[in-house]
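I am writing to request your help with a piece of structural work I have in hand. Thank you for your consideration; the sequence and its tokens are set out here:
=====
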Amino acid sequence: MEEIEKGNKGGSEERWKGAVDNLTEMTSNLDSLQKLLVKKAVFVDDETFSKASLTSEQARTIKVLEQRVETLERGLDAAISAAARARAEKRQAEAAQKAAELRAQEITRELENTTKVFELHMEELRAKQDEISKRDGDIKLLEAIIQTLGGKESHSLNG
């Protein structure tokens, strides 16, 4: 039902537009005749009237085409501006991406350096732990020797 109403509405609008166009054409023709009368032309033969009508028709066509050209030029200008904005945004996005990539590389280098430092500390800790384990072993050996010697001394003192 709505489609029928829209169709009727669209047809009605087209008829009104056609009627307005006809009135505009008649106004233009009357203006052309008035201009001829202003030039003291009292009688206009059919040939002159036809030429004036043709000229008037051509002037209207030229005006419509000029308006269409202006509309297309505005559309073209808008498209050019939009393309320029898009290029600028693309350059900004590329610059931001490049900056992000550089930052990511910097962070990766920092992580690699931190990892290397951590590995060096781990190696140092392992070496210290090995040294402590070795000294622990030396201490236990010395304690065993001391106990062994201490045990012999107490046997010889007692005996």
Notes: The first helix runs from residue 2 to 38.
